[in-house]
Structures are given as structure tokens and as C-alpha cells.
User: Which sequence fits this backbone?
């Protein structure tokens, strides 16, 4: 199939958000077990195995900087309760209360609802971990249509591996599994043009199951996928604010400063496209996003060939950017190649020397010079907190 279509992309984005809740909840469960916050507890001569005290977990979230205050911590835990990740041990409370009440993760008592979606996520996570933990040649740097992609799977080789590992009994069923993984946003065609088919096309894991999720991400109701509107909004540099609203400065190409009401500082190309690392106390807003900075900072688009021409005016720079609590602090736009549209003066990107008008050539070892900003943004969003970037900029003589 040539192109998975907008409908399938939207469906995959919705399922990916659901998967993020499952993965984030599982990471929290394992952390709480390791910290011995989850344990057997007694109340009125009865023992409740593998549970935690609501009031204690609120303290733990604040102590570990997963929430800035008790109200935010309650909202985080309520999100997990609403998604059936956890529940009151006697199912007497549908709300998460900051009291000495016992709650338990459903995975610890075998009551987790294993619907078809959850089964696919868990299957995808197991396959991902299996591939990452074993020595194999499946994940390699390869080219498709003249573009180089890192850590790719060839569909037919992936199917061979699934059969060898006993994951699926027949080739047809293995191909169906690949299609389900794609439809649930776990894998994708490298340029997002094809569905999963048994052949020589290249695919990558869209989800990084090992990325450490911040619990505050659960409160972000907006999508993490990159929107279709080219003039995507973005917000930069948090200002001190009073009252319930949070203000941000948005830097326009003319250096004019505009104040924007927003949920948080975005480090990517839109208020939807987040870094995966948020401020500790986001202000949830139901107001529509404000379009800012629609005009490109470039005087003209430059081709990859021109950027890399021997003796040309462009030089290569590499950056290692470690995301902070609210992101990486830059915005990408354009395509073939995309470029840095704005840099937060107080963010991690500015600290290492990133500037506007630099052209993005590689992200975490992947050649991205022929990709658009949506694809590049998603690569960063689904990757590790530390981002390695290679850019080209015009030399100053």
C-alpha cells in the first residue's frame, strides 16, 4: 500500500498515546517495587499484598520531583487509575485520594484488562526488548530511496526472525503481527509511506520503550505527534507569572517578543510536539493554540548538495544536547533539509551553541537531510533524553 493515509496516522497517534500511558505506568510500578514502596500491608487483621499507601505515594512523587505539589501528584495518579493501571484494593474508591488508603497496580494482582490493544503493546515491548538484548544483525544502517536510516529492520528478515524465535508459527501470521505493530504506532516505515509487507522495505521502532518517561507527561492531553499545519506554533522561555496562567516568550524572526499563553515551553516545532520532558507544574489550558512565528528565519532554502559542496561556505558542527525538565529548547522547521527556526536563550540547545538558520543533517547518527521537520521532530521525541545532532552553518569570515 502506497502511503498509510491520514486516518491510519491519526489512529496510530491515538494508540501511541495510550501506549505511553501503559509504558509510563509500568515504569512507575517497577520503580516503586525497587524502592520498596509497594509491599504487603495489614489493616484490620487482613493482609493486602503488593500495595501502596496513597498519602505515601504523593510524598514520594514530590520527593523525587515527579510532581511539584500534592494536587499535581493526585492528578497523575488519577490518570493511571482512570486508565485501569491501578485501583483501590477493595475497589471502593474511583477517585485517588490523598489519604491512608491502599491502592495496587492491576498488573500485581492479575486484574489488568488485557484487551486486544494492550496485548499488542505488550507484545511489541517484549519483541523490542528481545531485539535490544540479543546479538543480531537485524538492526542496521541501511538506505532506501537514497536516504540513509539508522537501526532499521528489513521486513522479510524481521519475519524470518519472528519465525526462528517462535514468536509466530507461520509467515502469514508474522506479517499480520507486523501490520498490527504498525497500526498501533509501535513500528513505522522509515519514511512513513508504506504499510507493513513481507518484502525488502525498511521499518523502525517508532516507540522507544526504554526512554525514561516523566510522570507529568500523563497530564498533557494534547497529542505528541507533529500536526499537519506547516505554520505550527511554538513557545519559548518561561516567564515569571502570577495567578493561574503561565506565560512564555516567543521569539519571532524580527526579534520582536510576543507573550503567548501556553501549557508549557515547547522544544520542538509545535505546542503539540513536546520534548517528553516537561516543567514540574504545567498549567493546563483549554484555549486554542496561538500561531506564532509563521515566517521562516531563512532568507532562502539551501539544498543538501550545496551545504556539502567541497570548498563551500558551510561548515559542520556537532552538538550533544541533554534535555532538561522542560525539553531541549529549540524548534525545527522546513524540509530537505530542515533547519533551526528558533532557540530558547535559556535552554540546553543554546548552552551548547545551537543557533537559528543552522541546517540539521543528522540526529543520533541518522542521516535526516532529506526528511521534513515532522519526521525529524518525531525522531527526537521518541529518542533518548540526550540528543546528538550534526548541523551545517554558514562560516563567518
Assistant:
Amino acid at each position: 500500500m502506497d502511503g498509510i493515509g491520514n486516518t491510519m496516522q491519526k489512529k496510530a497517534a491515538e494508540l501511541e498515546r495510550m501506549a505511553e500511558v501503559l509504558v509510563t505506568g509500568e515504569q512507575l510500578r517497577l520503580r516503586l517495587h525497587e524502592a520498596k514502596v509497594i509491599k504487603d500491608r495489614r489493616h484490620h487483621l487482613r493482609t493486602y499484598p503488593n500495595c501502596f499507601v496513597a498519602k505515601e505515594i504523593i510524598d514520594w512523587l514530590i520527593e523525587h520531583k515527579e510532581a511539584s505539589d500534592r494536587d499535581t501528584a493526585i492528578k497523575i495518579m488519577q490518570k493511571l487509575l482512570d486508565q485501569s493501571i491501578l485501583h483501590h484494593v477493595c475497589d471502593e474508591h474511583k477517585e485517588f485520594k490523598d489519604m491512608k488508603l491502599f491502592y495496587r497496580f492491576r498488573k500485581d494482582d492479575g486484574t489488568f484488562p488485557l484487551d486486544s490493544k494492550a496485548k499488542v503493546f505488550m507484545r511489541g515491548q517484549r519483541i523490542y526488548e528481545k531485539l535490544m538484548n540479543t546479538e543480531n544483525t537485524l538492526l542496521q544502517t541501511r538506505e532506501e530511496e537514497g536516504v540513509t536510516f539508522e537501526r532499521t529492520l528489513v521486513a522479510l528478515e524481521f519475519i524470518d526472525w519472528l519465525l526462528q524465535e517462535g514468536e509466530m508459527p507461520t509467515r502469514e501470521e508474522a506479517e499480520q503481527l507486523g501490520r498490527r505493530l504498525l497500526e498501533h504506532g509501535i513500528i513505522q516505515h522509515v519514511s512513513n509511506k508504506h504499510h507493513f509487507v513481507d518484502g525488502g522495505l525498511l521499518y523502525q521502532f517508532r516507540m522507544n520503550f526504554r526512554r525514561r518517561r516523566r510522570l507529568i507527561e500523563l497530564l498533557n492531553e494534547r497529542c505528541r505527534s507533529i500536526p499537519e499545519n506547516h505554520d505550527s506554533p511554538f513557545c519559548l522561555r518561561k516567564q515569571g507569572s502570577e495567578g493561574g496562567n503561565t506565560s512564555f516568550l516567543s521569539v519571532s524572526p524580527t526579534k520582536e517578543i510576543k507573550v503567548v499563553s501556553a501549557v508549557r515551553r515547547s522544544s520542538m516545532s509545535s505546542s503539540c510536539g513536546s520534548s517528553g520532558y516537561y516543567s514540574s507544574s504545567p498549567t493546563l489550558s483549554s484555549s486554542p493554540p496561538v500561531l506564532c512565528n509563521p515566517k521562516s528565519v531563512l532568507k532562502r532554502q539551501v539544498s543538501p548538495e550545496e551545504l556539502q559542496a567541497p570548498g563551500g561556505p558551510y561548515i559542520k558542527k556537532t552538538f550533544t544536547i541533554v534535555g532538561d525538565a522542560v525539553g531541549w529548547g529549540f524548534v525545527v522547521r522546513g524540509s530537505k533539509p530542515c533547519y533551526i527556526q528558533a532557540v530558547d536563550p535559556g535552554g540546553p540547545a543554546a548552552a551548547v551553541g545551537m543557533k537559528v538558520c543552522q541546517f540539521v543533517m543528522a540526529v543520533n547518527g541518522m542521516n535526516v537531510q532529506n526528511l521534513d521537520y515532522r519526521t525529524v521532530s518525531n525522531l527526537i521525541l521518541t529518542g533518548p533524553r540526550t540528543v546528538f545532532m550534526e548541523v551545517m552553518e554558514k562560516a563567518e569570515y
Observations:
- The radius of gyration is 23 Å.
- Residues 8-105 form a domain with the Arc Repressor Mutant, subunit A fold (CATH 1.10.10.10).
- Residues 125 and 209 are 7 Å apart (CA to CA).
